[in-house]
Amino acid sequence: MIELAGDPNSLNVRVSSSGGKGRGVFAARKIAKDEMIERAPIIVIPEEQWELIEPTILRDYVFSWGENDELTAVALGYVSIYNHSYTPNAMYVQAPEHEAIEIVALRDIDSGEEIVVNYNGEPDDKEELWFPTL
User: Fold this and answer.
1) d(CA 82, CA 124)
2) What pLDDT does 71 receive?
3) Separation between Cα atoms, residue 62 and residue 47, nearest integer Å
4) Could you please report the per-residue DSSP string of 74-95?
5) Quick one: how far is CA 73 from the chain centroid?
6) Dist. CA 89–CA 116, nearest whole Å
7) What structural domains does the chain harbor?
8) Rounded CA gap, 105 and 128, in Å?
9) What's the rounded Cα separation, in Å, for the pair 17 and 39?
10) Which of 31, 66, 71, 82 is the most exposed place for a label (fewest CB within 10 A)?
11) Which residues of the chain carry a pLDDT beneath 70?
12) Structure confidence at residue 134 (pLDDT)
């Protein structure tokens, strides 16, 4: 397990290996339904720079951003490490007033449980992703 001493996020979550999915984010304590797990600042990618990002690995770690998802953003913090599930226990929420993405619990999450989100944005969206899922 990776432990980042002094990291305030470590009060809520831990980054660890996630059985065949690379790294994942796990609850460091019990998290209540509707609780904000993390608020991560974002960096909006200017539209004219997207063609430089698209052919890189960063393409798989960006988020749609804006009122109509017309922009793209890189999220800092642990946001890009949460794994995907079609039965998520958390979701992404845009927080433009904070220039951030928040991770919010959809149900109670037990300490030690992996926190997973639906990469399609909406918790019940079953649309296929750009990569094979486990």
Assistant:
1) 17
2) 87
3) 13
4) EE-TTGGGPEE-SS-SEEEEEE
5) 12
6) 6
7) 8-117 (2.170.270.10)
8) 23
9) 22
10) 66
11) 1-10, 121, 123, 125-127, 129-134
12) 54
pLDDT of res. 2: 46
Quick check: helix, strand or coil at residue 53?
helix
pLDDT at 32: 96
The gap from C-alpha 89 to its chain's centroid, in whole angstroms, comes to 12
Cα separation, 54 vs 67, in Å, equals: 22
How many whole angstroms separate alpha carbon 83 and alpha carbon 67?
A: 24
Q: pLDDT at position 1, please? A: 44
Amino acid identity, position 20: G
CA neighbor of 66 nearest in space, from 19, 99, 102, 90: 99
Pairwise CA distance, residues 55 & 79, whole Å: 21
**Cα–Cα distances in Å, from 104 out to 22, 63, 123, 134?**
22, 16, 11, 23
